[in-house]
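[step 3/7] inverse_fold.run input=structure_tokens len=164
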């Protein structure tokens, strides 16, 4: 079993609350818009980090992280990208890949809107953790945490970090 912390859209912001949740995770997944690499460095000190770059990330982040990250956690195939949309409205850049070979778990960021929903047509679960940074139109900073045990995604929890 793995305890996962999922976050996105830091826009260079990191604080002790985020890091305390990171410390309790087995893995940290970041869905882009990291900003300053001090954010990813601080997270990686707490637990193994899997991340993608986002549209605000500079050449350093783009060199360190891919645009799309596809991997297995336990027996669950995961696909992460920053601008991905959601079921019924996937972004054009990723739509074909998702439709041709759907993962069990599709993760994106970018919208700053926390959303978890099933795509019954493709048989996948979509997660967007919202934004944990202080820049953007969102009112409350959010992250997600959950467990993966074999093929089972479970114990999903929304973490509210307060107003931006």
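[step 3/7] decode complete -> sequence:
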């Amino acid at each position: 079993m793995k305890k996962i912390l999922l976050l996105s859209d830091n826009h260079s912001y990191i604080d002790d609350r985020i890091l305390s949740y990171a410390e309790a995770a087995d893995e940290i997944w970041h869905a882009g818009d990291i900003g300053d690499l001090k954010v990813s460095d601080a997270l990686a000190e707490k637990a193994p980090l899997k991340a993608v770059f986002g549209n605000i990330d500079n050449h350093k982040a783009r060199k360190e992280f891919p645009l799309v990250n596809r991997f297995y956690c336990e027996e669950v195939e995961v696909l992460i990208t920053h601008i991905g949309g959601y079921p019924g409205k996937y972004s054009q850049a990723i739509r074909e890949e998702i439709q041709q070979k759907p993962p069990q778990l599709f993760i994106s960021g970018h919208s700053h809107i926390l959303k978890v929903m099933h795509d019954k047509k493709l048989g996948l679960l979509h997660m967007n953790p919202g934004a944990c940074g202080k820049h953007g139109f969102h009112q409350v900073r959010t992250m997600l945490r959950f467990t993966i045990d074999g093929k089972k995604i479970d114990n999903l929890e929304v973490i509210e970090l307060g107003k931006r």
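[step 4/7] annotate
The radius of gyration is 14 Å.
The chain has a mean pLDDT of 96.
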